[in-house]
Design goal:
heterodimer; A: 194 residues; mainly alpha; Rna Polymerase Sigma Factor, Chain: A; elongated; B: 87 residues
Amino acid sequence: MPTESKQDAQTHLTTWFTEYGDELYSWAVHKTSSKETAEDLVQETLLSAFKAFSSFKIGSNPKTWLFTILNNKIIDYYRASNTKKSINETELLGNRMDDENFNAEGHWNRNPISAWANEKEHLLDNAGFLDILDKCIQNLPLNWRNVIISKYFDHKKGSQISKELNITSSNLWQMAHRAKLQLKDCLDKNWEID
Amino acid sequence: MNKLVNIASISCKEAALLGTKKSLDSLSFIEGIKFKLHLKICKTCEDYINQNNLLDSAIEQLLKSKKQQIISLTEEQRTKIIQVLKH
């Protein structure tokens, strides 16, 4: 990069980072549940933006541009976490969830109805319950958590999520199904009605 | 008729999975019939699906409130991140 363009890129990106840094970082924290990972991803975003600065069209929205780069970094992060080892581990956990909940014929092994479900609409205003739910989501295996975040935070369609994660649709439904069972289990264990 | 009922019958495990599939994508015509039929005859699954919808709403509510929550970078983090532009 010629020195002049390099300086131009540095000046612009420094200004934009001052302006949008917190928003980029918050977004990455919410999507990865890790401040450390979020910090790395924001830094990588800035580096990629610097390298690709010539492709930024003057007049377009820098915030949108930076968020597009960040979102691609987040997709890469989750895709990289989908290793054979992690898939095997979640498969084991998933099988255990299935065995705990269903018998060989596929009927419920235990009553799946939880005490918290009786709270109905009051539940959504209950900060204590939402706090436990938050911790339960954070404790999900990485790839299951990503499915939940993609669906409920980003409102992405199933087909888009499976494409991003490089998995089949039936794999995705299975992961979401097991993630929900795991969340239910976690809430059952940690939620106590006053 | 019995044969028809057999073809249409699915287990609770399959019904729970179809419930999740329905919320992510959509069910095929046949799957939709199987799912509805199962919920008609299985009160536990009907309750489970309703409970799951409640859980969906709770997750939505939680993540919606998070979306508006800004977490500020510390000065130390800012200095560290911006270093990347200085090489």
